[in-house]
Design goal:
This is WSC domain containing 2. By secondary structure, the chain is of the alpha+beta class. About 35% of the residues lie in helices and about 15% in strands. About 15% of the residues have low confidence.
Length: about 575
């Protein structure tokens, strides 16, 4: 009988060791059979690690984006002349167009070497040149008005103040005062910033305001007990504030004042604070000063706040505060309190499926989110979107999650401009904005979020020129395509909506097939900003547009203006053309 083959001994492990390892492996397998969760946990960790490696590889290299096909006939068929370098097209070599996600452009990340050359925020130009002549130059954000005396017992500017003995600059002081709604910003001792609504001191010699700013040696920030004061030239949409209240203006007393303003209280020692506090306690959104009587109410058709009077007619000194005005029995000073007007805050989905799809179409940066906010308040129904933006959904746009064809929303936000996409809608509100401002707004959104700002490094780097080259032609083709392929298009200029919100919003609501309630529209006027507005003052300290950019954009403006007039519509506003 042949003997069974002998087991070959491992040169590294003894038989006992092999048996121990086999038992360990069997125990390991049995453990995962009993508890499969462990197996899936390890598998998930493995996949997560692989994903991180993949993402890292994607960020270290320049991503390659497929180019889109040039659309034939874009901008054609309108009888418009060819404008040299301003030939229009929806297709850009650097752009990939996604149906649900809009236009995606290739990454513009700076290389480390470029970042080190430019610095974290790029070069910063002087915000307030030395010398009187330079400071008196008119700017969009503020105007220098002079050097004034100041002392600790009686401050020239009596609002908030803050100090920074290392980084104080003129722009930083102006920005902080504007964010708080003040009309004046003053700098002292090179590092102290004061805000206020009135300048309450005599002038001083300009030579006394000669201290350099701590954060910007090329500018002056007042002197010893001397304030360099700037009047903040706020944009029209920025509201003047008095503490927590917003100044609405001087108005003539309505005929039925007791009906229009139902709550009232005589105040022999009247002041703005006392009247605002009284109306806030009574839960009214309007605080109205009428000499020695404080009145409260809502904006209604009896008191719509549309016909403002000269503020000098309300300039009667308050009995309780010598530096404030309290109006008269005939001319009333109106402030808006922090009390929310709830007459236009209820919103819901449409009770039945809509029979028509209405687009709220605009170029990115033209105020589409703001217009959605206004429409939702005016109609009481949610607006939808061609895309999905989680940040907007979290801020209250509940229609953001619905599919754009669901029929449950009053209108659909879209930035699309292709013929197929446009013809999918039965009607459209076409919102048009000054391209210079729209491009900057979209650039800020792209690099800073819906209400944020792009960093200086992005403006100074290659991102801005590439952005303008790609987006400026799209501004024109977007409008031209909607005018050409849209079925029922209502053109609304962003600037007109800001200037006369009541009239323009009434037009927009009419197209949506909703009977406009005037009291509700008046309520919207008081809640118009919402949480979707950038600061009106935080602007660049220089013009980001080069002469070549302006020449190109001006050509696009002329093309759009001609297309609007060809359809018997009013052309673009005059301020679209740079002066």
């Amino acid at each position: 009988m042949q003997n069974p083959p002998q087991r070959r001994a491992s040169p590294w492990l003894s038989r006992r060791d092999e048996d121990a390892m086999a038992k360990l492996w069997v125990k390991f397998q049995r453990s995962f059979r009993r508890r499969p969760v462990r197996f899936f946990t390890l598998l998930a960790l493995y996949l997560a690690a692989g994903s991180l490696v993949f993402l890292h590889a994607g960020f270290t290299g320049e991503p390659r984006v497929a180019g889109s096909q040039r659309s034939p006939g874009a901008g054609e068929g309108l009888g418009l002349p060819y404008l040299g370098g301003t030939r229009l097209s929806r297709g850009f070599p650097e752009v990939a167009v996604g149906r649900r996600r809009g236009h995606w452009f290739k990454g513009m990340a700076k290389e480390p070497a470029e970042r080190s050359r430019a610095g974290e925020y790029g070069a910063v130009r002087s915000r307030a040149p030395k010398g009187r002549g330079g400071r008196e130059k008119e700017e969009d954000r503020a105007r220098y008005i002079g050097c004034y005396e100041d002392n600790t017992r009686s401050r020239t500017l009596r609002g908030v103040s803050f100090f920074d003995y290392k980084k104080m600059t003129v722009f930083r002081c102006q920005d902080n005062c504007a964010e708080r709604g003040y009309l004046y910003a003053g700098l002292e001792f090179g590092a102290e910033c004061y805000c206020g609504h009135k300048v309450q001191a005599p002038n001083a010699s300009e030579s006394e305001c000669n201290m350099e700013c701590k954060g910007e040696r090329s500018s002056t920030c007042g002197g010893a007990n001397r304030l360099s004061i700037y009047r903040l030239e706020l944009a029209q949409e920025s509201a003047r504030r008095y503490g927590s209240a917003i100044f609405r203006g001087c108005f003539r007393q309505p005929d039925n004042v007791t009906i229009a303003l139902p709550a009232s209280q005589p105040m022999p020692n009247m002041s703005v604070d006392k009247c605002v506090d009284f109306c806030t306690e009574k839960e009214f959104p309007l605080s109205v000063l009428a000499g020695t009587v404080c009145r409260c109410g809502f904006p209604t058709t009896l008191f719509p706040l549309h016909e403002r009077e000269d503020e000098q007619l309300c300039a009667q000194r308050c009995a309780g505060e010598e530096f404030e005005s309290c109006g008269t029995t005939e001319f009333l000073l109106v402030y808006q309190t922090q009390v929310q007007d709830n007459r236009c805050m209820d919103r819901r989905f449409l009770p039945t499926r809509s029979k028509q799809l209405v687009a709220l179409a605009s170029f990115p940066g033209a105020g589409n989110t703001w217009a959605r906010h206004l429409i939702e308040l005016a109609t009481g129904f949610y607006t939808g979107s061609y895309y999905f933006d989680g940040s907007l959904y979290n801020k209250g746009f509940k229609g953001e999650r619905d599919h754009w064809r669901s029929g449950r929303t009053i209108c659909i936000k879209t930035h699309e401009s292709g013929q197929k996409e446009i013809e999918a809608f039965d009607a459209a509100i076409l919102l048009i904005r000054n391209p210079y401002k729209a491009l900057m707004a979209e650039f800020n959104r792209k690099y800073g979020g819906h209400i944020g700002f792009a960093a200086h490094a992005h403006w100074r780097g290659k991102e801005w020129p590439e952005f303008v080259a790609n987006y400026a032609p799209w501004w024109a083709t977007h409008t031209l395509d909607w005018l050409r392929f849209g079925r029922k298009v209502l053109v609304v200029h962003f600037e007109d909506l800001k200037q006369d919100l009541f009239k323009q919003l009434k037009r927009m609501v009419g197209l949506l097939g909703i009977a406009a309630c005037e009291d509700r529209l008046l309520c919207v006027e008081g809640q118009k900003d919402g949480n979707f507005k950038r600061s009106g003052l935080r602007k660049l300290e220089y013009d980001p547009y080069t002469p070549e950019m302006r020449k190109m954009i001006s050509g696009y403006i002329r093309t759009v203006d001609a297309a609007l007039k060809l359809r018997n519509l009013s052309g673009v506003p005059d301020d679209y053309y740079p002066r």
